[in-house]
Known about the structure:
Elements: E1 9-13, E2 20-25, H1 29-46, H2 51-67, H3 69-80, H4 84-108, E3 112-116, E4 119-127, E5 130-134, H5 142-153, E6 157-161, H6 167-179, E7 187-190, H7 194-202, E8 206-212, H8 215-227, E9 231-235, E10 240-244, H9 250-262, E11 272-278, H10 282-294, H11 314-329, E12 333-336, E13 351-354, H12 361-364, E14 371-377, H13 380-388, E15 392-393, E16 395-399, H14 403-412, E17 417-420, E18 435-436, E19 439-440, H15 445-450, E20 453-460
Helix pairs in contact: 2-4, 2-6, 3-4, 3-6, 4-5, 9-10
Amino acid sequence: MPSVSSLTHALSINPATGEQIGHYPFESDSALDAALSRAAAGFSLWRRTALEQRSQALIALAQALRDNATKMAEMISREMGKPIAQARGEIEKCAQLCMWYAENGPAMLSAEPTQVEGGKARIEYRPLGSILAVMPWNFPIWQVLRGAVPTLLAGNTFVLKHAPNVMGSAYLLLDAFKRAGFPEGVFEVINVTPDGVSRAIADPRIAAVTLTGSVRAGMAIGAQAGAALKKCVLELGGSDPFIVLNDADLDEAVKAAVIGRYQNTGQVCAAAKRLIVEQGVIEVFTTKFVEATRRLVVGDPLAVDTYIGPMARFDLRDELDQQVQDTLAQGATLLLGGKKTEGPGNFYEPTVLANVTDQMTSFQQELFGPVASIITARDAAHALALANDSEFGLTATVYTADLELADKFADELETGGVFINGYSASDPRVSFGGVKKSGFGRELSHFGVREFCNAQTVWLDRR
Length: 463
């Protein structure tokens, strides 16, 4: 099976069939230079465009996304295997994101006046310049726009370097920006090698960098941005705990755990990867969870009833299978699945591992695919300790009838987000990001608007 990239081009491989569906030559140094020049020129224009006009452009973008939703959703499904119903939902969520920021974002950029001794002062939020975004394949449109929309509203321009296996989605998104009437250079797409990314980071026309990806990629990008004294935002995934205590509503907890673990074929940064269940309900929860998982429809991502499609890349399926086999060899119990599906597609059976301990591979590492690990907690305190026993810290979920205890958990959980009696999600009204090796910086809400702004203090009549 060919790789998604080589030294000369990026390939798009349909993971449901193994067939090549796209071929995108990497751009030359001169093409990269031209794109950065367009972004710099676009910034000079865009930063001076009235905020109201930038808001209206987001409304136009929402309409362009909706007008082309079918084409874009089908491209997502064909390029990375997302079930078509989920792909359509991704496009609509992006349209709603644009509309929300168009309505609510301008107030987040308002000047903040204050009285100071000897005069007056205010804080103004000024755009930084052109922002380089290195984005992943698992949400080809949402991951891009949840960073791009608030960043563009603030007056910056956006240079997208997308994952090589979803370049078709990247160019459809670029077309949507053109249809929405954005000026040239405000949203650019570059198709370059890692060396090209390094050159872009070092280039003075790039003001800051954002990346969503692996810890390894984050360390590399973060080091390069630091060497160039440029701000960066890193969202690096996680091994999120999903805690179920003895008093939880088990039917609701199971329903949420299945969605939280298996949506997008388990290829979600903030997925419910470690199911930490208090021992008083472990047997009932496990039985219900396995039954619900067994009912999930696996198949053609373009079929409307499919819930689990193929994994996006063949190399990642091999890596996931090795993690599963290692965990089983370490003493875990296989309750469901546990192997690659026969045939040409890149499918992996929905898998449930039980009796997982904190010393096993599936506890210590992130499993990016349709595999759930069930861990027994002796009591609530042990569940909390297990949840924090991770190098990651993106989100956590707690299911309990005791909301006071849940709030205490939130105070102790070492994560960027905590979800009480509901699985993790991203929403423009609240911030999204992690701690520890899940990265730093925040997307969405007012944090996303101001993340790539110069918070400039303006003093008046200081004597």
